[in-house]
Amino acid sequence: MSVILAIESSCDDTSVAICNNGKITANVIANQTIHQNYGGVIPELASRVHQQNIVPAVQQALINAKVTKQDINAVAFTRGPGLLGSLLVGVSFAKSFALALNIPLISVNHMHAHILAHFIDDPKPGFPFICLTVSGGHTQIVLVKDYFDMEIIGETLDDAAGEAFDKTAKLLALPYPGGPLIDKHAQHGNPFAFKFAEPQIADLNFSFSGFKTSVLYFIRRQEKENPNFIAENLDDICASVQHSIVQILLNKLKKAAKQYGINEIAIAGGVSANSGLRNGLQQTADELGWKVYIPAFQYCTDNAGMIAIAGYQKYLKQDFVGQDVSPMARMEF
After folding, report:
1. What is the enclosing helix (H) or strand (E) of 112?
2. Contact by Cβ (8 Å): 129, 261
3. Which residue in 38, 159, 173, 326 has its CB near the most CB atoms, within 10 A?
4. What is the DSSP-derived secondary structure letter of residue 202?
């Protein structure tokens, strides 16, 4: 019998989940709208709002899961990577909660948790599988041999795919967060209307800095000729940008699957909620005979459900940490 309380506070979403014997029975996410005024996450503001949200989020998770504090057997928390101030709020709360109830602490790597989100619902991938993890801060291809035996076989050399979406959204004057809005507009546009530079990286690594520059220069050139270019072509621009990014990701994923002889393929991270990536992955799977695994939307973006399922696997191993544990903004994979 295990009931685990999980805390996720790596960036700007305060999330609390309950895992009861391997089943997620609550997954509460408190979003921070204050950052929309600034076009991006302000770390100091994020940590302050985490302090405001964390107690109500815990209370709501307990109510949703129909458990009490006394039912909790362990506390899992995101140790890193992430914004140090935000992590500090979650880690401090987890340590205090565990200390007050004299229960163990479980440290979770945020990127491991994104991958283990695939073990929340059925169908679940079999080992080994390849996971493309894509978010605003990370783009990685991971060979997953076991729950905590993972190897990065490809990663971005500079910017992440999620950042390419977000920076493009800024260029188009779309409000924050811009990634989902690009996806929304892309569904009404022509993905082949415009072409952008595709990075030429020989191995399984990625690079998106040149792609971002290509989009920037393209928009500047077009606006010189037509000041209303963005407004008149917004859907097509979004569709073309999204198609380009998705193709870059899928081409590397196909290369990795062929190189390692694996047809169990998963995607994770915030960008895995993108409809273009989901559809493109499914089409590729149909062509190549892959078995694909995509988490439910609520487990794609930052959430405590994925921390809870990772914490459950560590609980089974009795893999606990002491009260001297500290958050890590940069945490080894």
Report:
1. helix 110-116
2. no
3. 159
4. S
Is residue 322 domain-resident?
no
- 173: alpha, beta or left? (left if phi > 0; alpha if psi -120 to 50): left
What rounded mean pLDDT belongs to the chain? Answer: 95
Phi, psi (rounded to 5 degrees) for 292? -110, 150
Band the pLDDT of 88: cuts 50, 70, 90: very high
CA separation for the pair 104, 4 (Å, rounded): 10
Q: Return d(Cα 180, Cα 183) in angstroms, integer.
A: 5
Helix (H) or strand (E) holding 26: strand 23-30
User: Domain of 81: which CATH number?
Assistant: 3.30.420.40
Q: How confident is the model at residue 147 (pLDDT cuts 50, 70, 90)?
A: very high
What pLDDT digit, counting tens, does each position of 274-307 carry? Answer: 999 999 999 999 999 999 999 999 999 999 999 9
For residue 174, give its domain range: 125-294
Q: Is the same domain home to 96 and 150? A: no
Q: What is the DSSP string of 127-179?
A: SSEEEEEE-SS-EEEEEEEETTEEEEEEEBSS--HHHHHHHHHHHTTPPSS-H
What is the residue type of 257?
Answer: A
For the cut 80, the answer to whether the pLDDT of residue 32 exceeds it is no
The conformation of residue 189, written as its DSSP 8-state character, comes to S
111 domain-assigned: yes
Cβ-contact 120, 306 below 8 angstroms: yes
Residue 52 included in any domain: yes
- Considering the domain architecture, whether residues 273 and 181 belong to the same structural domain is answered as yes
Based on the structure, what is the number of domains in the chain?
Answer: 2
